[in-house]
C-alpha cells in the first residue's frame, strides 16, 4: 500500500539520520513484503549498518522460500555471510506432543536451503496464549514454552542457533481495546513453562488492582518463585506480597506496570537459562 510504504520509508530515513548521534549498531530487518524502495535505502546507507542486515522468514512462507530468499538477496547489496537469518515461527499452536514434526520440518528447510551459511541463524516464536479469557478465576495454569523446546531440539544439531521469543506475550501487534475487561494477572516464566496466576473481574471495582497482593502472595509461596534477589521484578513481587492495601492509594501497580514486571523477569530468567548451554 503506497501510504504504508511512504510512512515506513520516511521512518527509516529519519532513523538513519539519528544513528550517528547515538552509540548504537542497528540491524535492519528485511521481510518479503518490504518494497524495493525500502531495500534501496538500506543499500544506499549500508555503511550505517556496517554492511549488515537480517532477513526474516515466517513459517507460512516455507513453501515459497526459494523465491523469497532469491528476491531479497538479489536486491540487497550485502554479502550472504553478512546477513542474519531469522526463522519466525510466529504463534505456535501445535500441541506439545506434535513439536517433533515441526522441528523436523525446520531441520529439513535448513538443510535444503543451506540456511546455516548465513552470518547467524535465529529461531523465534511464541506459544503464549493469545487470550486468557478462558482461565478460571483464582487459578494457576501452566503452558509449555514450545519455542524454547524447539530451539533446544534444533540446537543439538546446530549449536550456534540463536534463541528468540516474544517475551511474555503473543506475536500479534499490540493494540489497546478500551472495551476489554481488565483482570489482574501475573505472567511468570520458569524452566520450560509459562505460569499464569489469574485474579477475577470485580464489576464494582473494575480498576482495583489490590488483587495483586493476593496473587503475589500465591506466587511467592509457589515453588517456582526464584526469590526476591533474582531480578528487579522478583523484588517488586515480594514487596507487593508483603504489603497489604489499606486504602485505594496502595501502590500495587496496574495493567501496564505488570507487563513490565513480567517482561523483566522473563528476560532475566532466559538470560540465565541460556548461559547453561554455553
Record keyword descriptors for this entry.
278 residues; 8 strands; globular; 5-stranded parallel beta sheet; 3-stranded antiparallel beta sheet
3D structure, described in words:
The protein has helices at 2-18, 36-44, 65-75, 99-112, 146-155, 211-220, 232-241, 255-275; strands spanning 29-30, 53-58, 83-91, 120-126, 140-144, 162-163, 185-190, 193-198. It is an alpha/beta fold. The protein has one domain. The protein has a 5-stranded parallel beta sheet, covered by helices on one side. Strands 5-8-7 form a 3-stranded antiparallel beta sheet. Helix 4 crosses helix 5 (146-155), helix 6 packs across helix 7 (232-241) and helix 7 crosses helix 8. It is globular.
Brief rundown of the structure:
The protein is α/β, with parallel strands linked by helices and 278 residues long.
Secondary-structure blueprint:
Blueprint lengths: L1 H17 L10 E2 L5 H9 L8 E6 L6 H11 L7 E9 L7 H14 L7 E7 L13 E5 L1 H10 L6 E2 L21 E6 L2 E6 L12 H10 L11 H10 L13 H21 L3
Parallel strand pairs: 1-2, 2-3, 3-4, 4-6
Antiparallel strand pairs: 5-8, 7-8
Helix pairs in contact: 4-5, 6-7, 7-8
Helical run tally: 8
**Main sheet makeup:** 5 strands, parallel
Structural class: alpha/beta
Helix content: 25-40%
Write down the oligomeric state.
single chain
Number of strands: 8
Number of domains: 1
Strand content: 15-25%
Contiguous uncertain segments of 5+ residues: none
Strand order of the largest sheet: 1-2-3-4-6
Q: Which outline best applies?
A: globular
Instruction: Look at the structure and give the mean pLDDT.
Output: 91
Mind telling me the C-alpha Rg?
22 Å
